[in-house]
């Protein structure tokens, strides 16, 4: 008995130490355990090398075995893993040999962070690795800094990723998200057989994501099972390698993509990579969603707007495309106000020469043919209606048919003697150049200063071509993508700082550039140009797996990609699972259509707090069923909103999908509490709703309903 109580005391102390100190240093000062709420990551020094020992369930860490691999795998020595770091020293030596030097526990944005310094055995340079612990989200974040501490000679960095982890011997499968324009974030699951599976973007655009899930093969339960997951916090070219060795271990390593890229580290200079976020859960895909989306919503989104309820938007793009003018926009704004919109946004077409996509980009002054009085007098009228005003911009691009390009043809990415490849009749401005940065900064500073703009939709529509910077020194030329991204972030951050009340939406021909780095700088994402409600159900299902609902703008539009003529009610219900917007030419709406919109927008305002800030649950996947069911539960677990979208309707038992039980089990409620369920008689315990479930009262293909479940 005495022994037992002693044991209990000791383990209690251990637990307390863990929760207070996310980073625990071994007695020998040569090992570290990094603990989150449920996970632990272990490192130790073996023969002067920093090695990763294990990563997984915190309770099972005691018996961790031999180290699985180097914390910073380098090109040098044995070639049994994928290097995170490859460099060439001034004398041509390209083999790296680092030794452990020292460690420090620092504070990064309020979180304990382990900083480990390694030095080269011979050459004057340091490799510093960082592991930040986000205990409440079961996440760790890794990044690397390299320093040339020498007095002469540059070090050529040929590859430098952000972080690597090794998983124990097992059979694994990978889920990742890829897509094309209009079909963003399609999930793919594949076995990781021996060899290397790479997912990468050489461009600045991708319609997928660097977010990934790795789990033991065949463990597909959505709510439980081990998953290692992560995402790269970077919006440029990125790469992830899943290196499965013949002995069974798996290395996951990722960061910037050094394809056609290098860095010259001059004496005395340093470079820090973007970070890669890793997580581990035993709660299946749902666990991944909860770790990632709550981290983004509670910590990553720009702090000025993080806790604000998102407004209902109107956007002019599908209504008017480039054909915008003051009179019609004011007419749209009037109806927008009438139906309950709060933010009126003019999309493309408002600036000089922009009659179609062949001209105008780069000349960021108002087109006085369309807005003879300028923007501000019209904005005042829109404000007088009681609406805030927003506008579309595409800073990073230029049309050759523009005053800017005529004056500065050398300001775009290009190579001498080579074609300048246009996409949508535009070229990419070389934002790595300081003069380009300054021009863009001045243009948008002026636009925001002179006009009462409260919302910016920041678009980016061309794929990467011709990444040449001919006037840069030869040894800087291949760093052009890195410098571009640095200035892109700087431009956004500077404007946000100067105009803190402005909301920013991230767009790249739909969802072409959505990632955690953008999430830390923009309040919203435009998930896709595909606003067909059925297609959208699939895109939104993936989006909401990885990103929070309060970042996902969805507009109700007349777009009908499959000519199904879906009812307005169905379209609204789909868009209400995120941040609701409207994109029709609403001046043409009948009174009946306006009434539907009024009712739906009023309903959205009543449920949006739970949708935007609640915990998301994907109850029924449209990929596996003839319907999709989403649920959001508020923090207090006193209110839940359930979205049901019927896709196909088939005779009972006609095929495997509808041989399953029609009952839907809810999640995330308080078992003991009694809830009312809109549309159903009586009250139900949380336990009943979660274990037995309810048959949702909804019939018919392409029908939808939104239910509120609450503690009365
Ligand atoms: C692409 C975006 O995805 C659309 O929403 C719209 O803003 C157009 N660009 C405007 O050119």
Task: Describe the structure in your own words.
It is built from 13 helices and 40 strands. It is an alpha+beta fold and 712 residues long. Strands 7, 8, 9, 10, 13, 14, 16, 17, 21 and 22 form a ten-stranded antiparallel sheet that branches. Strands 23-24-25-28-29-30-31-32 form an eight-stranded parallel β-barrel, surrounded by five helices. Helix 11 packs parallel to helix 12.
Write the layout of secondary structure elements.
Blueprint lengths: L1 H19 L2 E3 L5 E5 L3 E8 L2 E9 L11 E2 L14 E4 L9 E11 L2 E10 L4 E10 L4 E10 L6 E6 L2 E5 L4 E9 L2 E10 L2 E7 L10 E5 L10 E6 L5 E7 L5 E7 L6 E3 L4 E3 L3 E6 L2 H17 L12 E3 L1 H4 L5 H14 L3 E4 L29 H9 L3 E6 L3 E2 L4 H5 L19 E2 L5 H17 L4 E4 L21 H19 L4 E4 L9 H4 L4 E3 L6 H14 L5 E5 L11 H8 L3 E4 L8 H23 L1 E6 L6 E7 L5 E8 L16 E2 L9 E4 L5 E3 H6 L2 E2 L8 E7 L2
Parallel strand pairs: 23-24, 23-32, 24-25, 25-28, 28-29, 29-30, 30-31, 31-32
Antiparallel strand pairs: 1-2, 2-3, 3-4, 4-5, 6-11, 7-8, 8-9, 9-10, 10-21, 10-22, 11-20, 12-19, 13-14, 13-16, 15-18, 16-17, 17-22, 18-19, 26-27, 33-34, 34-35, 35-40, 36-39, 37-38, 37-40
Helix pairs in contact: 7-8, 10-11, 11-12
(2R,3S,4R,5S)-2-(hydroxymethyl)piperidine-3,4,5-triol binds next to loops.
Properties at a glance:
712 residues, globular, disordered N terminus, binds (2R,3S,4R,5S)-2-(hydroxymethyl)piperidine-3,4,5-triol
Give a brief description.
The chain is an alpha+beta fold.
The tally of strands reads: 40
Mean pLDDT: 95
Task: From the alpha carbons, calculate the radius of gyration and give it in angstroms.
Answer: 27 Å
SS-derived structural category: alpha+beta
* Binned strand content: 25-35%
State the distance separating the first and last CA atoms.
48 Å
């Amino acid at each position: 008995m005495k022994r037992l109580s002693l044991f209990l005391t000791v383990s209690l102390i251990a637990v307390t130490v863990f929760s207070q100190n996310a980073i625990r240093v071994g007695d020998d000062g040569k090992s570290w355990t990094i603990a989150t709420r449920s996970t632990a990551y272990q490192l130790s020094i073996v023969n002067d090398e920093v090695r990763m020992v294990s990563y997984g369930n915190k309770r099972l860490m005691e018996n961790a075995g031999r180290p699985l691999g180097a914390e910073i795998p380098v090109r040098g020595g044995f070639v049994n893993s994928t290097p995170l770091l490859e460099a060439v020293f001034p004398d041509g030596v390209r083999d790296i040999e680092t030794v452990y030097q020292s460690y420090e526990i620092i504070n990064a944005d309020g979180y304990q962070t382990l900083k480990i310094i390694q030095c080269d055995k011979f050459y004057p340079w340091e490799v510093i690795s960082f592991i930040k612990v986000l205990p409440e989200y079961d996440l760790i974040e890794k990044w690397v800094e390299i320093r040339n501490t020498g007095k002469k000679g540059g070090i050529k960095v040929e590859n430098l990723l952000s972080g690597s982890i090794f998983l124990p011997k097992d059979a694994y499968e990978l889920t990742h998200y890829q897509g094309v324009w209009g079909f963003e974030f399609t999930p793919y699951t594949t076995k990781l057989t021996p060899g290397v599976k790479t997912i990468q973007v050489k461009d600045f655009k991708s319609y997928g994501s660097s977010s990934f899930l790795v789990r033991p093969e065949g463990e597909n339960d959505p709510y439980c099972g081990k998953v290692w997951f992560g995402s790269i916090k970077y919006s440029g070219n990125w790469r992830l390698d899943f290196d499965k060795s013949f002995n069974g271990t798996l290395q996951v390593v990722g960061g910037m993509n050094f394809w056609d890229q290098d860095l010259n580290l001059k004496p005395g200079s340093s470079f820090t990579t973007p970070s890669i976020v890793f997580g581990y859960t035993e709660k299946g895909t749902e666990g991944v969603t909860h770790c990632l989306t709550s981290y983004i919503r509670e910590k990553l989104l720009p702090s000025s707007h993080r806790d604000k309820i998102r407004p209902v938007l109107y956007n002019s793009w599908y209504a008017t495309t480039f054909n915008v003018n003051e009179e019609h926009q004011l007419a749209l704004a009037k109806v927008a106000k009438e139906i309950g919109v709060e933010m009126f946004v003019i999309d493309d077409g408002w600036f000089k020469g922009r009659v179609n996509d062949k001209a105008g980009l780069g000349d960021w002054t108002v087109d006085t043919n369309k807005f003879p009085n300028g923007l501000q007098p019209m904005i005042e009228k829109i404000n007088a209606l009681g609406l805030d005003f927003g506008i579309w911009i595409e800073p990073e691009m230029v049309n050759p048919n523009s005053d800017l390009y005529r004056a500065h043809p050398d300001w775009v990415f290009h190579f001498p003697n080579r074609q300048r490849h246009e996409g949508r009749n535009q070229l990419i401005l070389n934002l790595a150049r300081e003069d380009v940065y300054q021009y863009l900064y001045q243009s948008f500073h002026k636009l925001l200063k002179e006009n009462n703009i409260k919302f910016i939709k920041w678009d980016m529509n061309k794929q990467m071509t011709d990444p040449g910077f001919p006037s840069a020194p030869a040894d800087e030329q291949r760093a052009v993508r890195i410098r571009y991204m640095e200035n892109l972030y700087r431009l956004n951050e500077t404007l946000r700082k100067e105009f803190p009340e402005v909301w920013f939406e991230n767009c790249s021909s739909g969802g072409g550039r959505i990632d955690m780095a953008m999430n830390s700088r923009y309040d919203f994402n435009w998930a896709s140009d595909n606003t067909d409600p059925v297609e959208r159900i699939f895109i939104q299902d993936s989006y909401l797996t990885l990103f929070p609902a309060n970042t996902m703008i969805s507009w109700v539009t007349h777009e009908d990609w499959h000519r199904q003529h879906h009812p307005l009610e169905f379209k609204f219900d789909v868009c209400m699972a995120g941040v609701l917007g409207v994109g029709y030419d609403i001046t043409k709406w009948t009174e009946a259509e306006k009434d539907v919109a009024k009712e739906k927008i009023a309903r959205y305002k009543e449920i949006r707090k739970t949708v935007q800030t609640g915990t998301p649950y994907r109850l029924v996947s449209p990929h596996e069923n003839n319907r999709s069911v989403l649920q959001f539960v508020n923090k207090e677990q006193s209110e839940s909103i359930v979205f049901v979208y019927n896709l196909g309707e088939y005779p009972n038992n006609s095929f495997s999908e509808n041989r399953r039980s029609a009952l839907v089990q809810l999640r995330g409620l308080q078992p003991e509490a009694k809830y009312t369920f809109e549309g159903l008689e009586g009250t139900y315990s949380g336990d009943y709703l979660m274990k037995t479930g309810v048959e949702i009262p909804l019939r018919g293909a392409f029908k939808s309903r939104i239910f509120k479940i609450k503690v009365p």
